[in-house]
Amino acid sequence: MNKVIISAKKVERIYSNGIVRTYALKDVSVDIQQGEFVAIMGPSGSGKSTLLHQLGLLDNPTNGSILIDGEDVVQLSDDTRTRFRLEKLGYVFQSYNLIPELTALENVYITPMARGMPEEEYTAKAKEMLTKVGLGDRMDHYPSELSGGQQQRVSIARALVNKPKILFADEPTANLDSDSSADTIRLFRQLNKEIGQTIVMVTHEENEGKQADRIIWIKDGIIDKAKK
Ligand SMILES: Nc1ncnc2c1ncn2[C@@H]1O[C@H](COP(=O)(O)OP(=O)(O)OP(=O)(O)O)[C@@H](O)[C@H]1O
Ligand SMILES: [Mg+2]
């Protein structure tokens, strides 16, 4: 059974810096199904990150509507949006954004801990996720004691510890060598298959895009239908 988890209609994002207006997104409409692994691809500056930020509630569109899990997220108050983001969405970026003073395990459980989950529960969940991403034997390592690929896997475990409805990733392999990049995409594919994780990933690597269920091509702020 298919269920649309993200429905974006006529989304526009105009950046205004003084007198300069940049039409980063013009009239973009996309539907993403629950359980889909989607790649967003297109040339540099075409609007990929901007689109990801709109769909992931990291930014607000200038015009248009976005429904996530049936909720009209553009209309939410700032507080409600923040809560929605924390409860339902997870993020992975090209810089892993780990806290250097914390071990892998602590980096993963810090959010559920801060949200008041009991210690036994957040420790168990963090261990489970680190094991799932293949770092069961590295939990007590600090980020500086891990390779780039391993650090990215910690950040993926951190994004998933809360079981988000959607995982957003913006060029997650941009700082990785080709082996670690392939491992990361394989991990996404596996998480998508095993736990039905919905994933929306920006990439500029065509071989990575091909491993997703579908590629959404963007060019000059619009969907590039010619590239279907
Ligand atoms: N905060 C901002 N203020 C003004 N213009 C911006 C801002 N962020 C992005 N832009 C512009 O919007 C357009 C789309 O940018 P975006 O970052 O979405 O591109 P991208 O496809 O992710 O590119 P890349 O592959 O290089 O990451 C670009 O022309 C960019 O210069
Ligand atoms: Mg980008």
What does this structure look like?
The protein has one domain: Rossmann fold, CATH 3.40.50.300. It is of the alpha/beta class. The protein is built from seven helices and ten strands. The strands form two sheets. A six-stranded mixed beta sheet has the order 6-7-8-3-9-10, sandwiched between helices. The chain has a four-stranded antiparallel beta sheet with strand order 2-1-4-5, with helices on one face. The two termini are 24 Å apart. The model has no long low-confidence stretch (mean pLDDT 95). Helix 3 packs across helix 4 and helix 4 packs across helix 5. The protein is globular. Adenosine-5'-triphosphate binds next to strand 1, strand 2 and helix 1.
Blueprint of the fold:
Blueprint: E1 4-17, E2 20-33, E3 37-41, H1 48-55, E4 63-68, E5 71-72, H2 78-88, E6 89-93, H3 104-114, H4 119-132, H5 148-160, E7 166-170, H6 178-195, E8 198-202, H7 206-209, E9 214-219, E10 222-223
Parallel strand pairs: 3-8, 3-9, 6-7, 7-8
Antiparallel strand pairs: 1-2, 1-4, 4-5, 9-10
This protein binds adenosine-5'-triphosphate and magnesium ion.
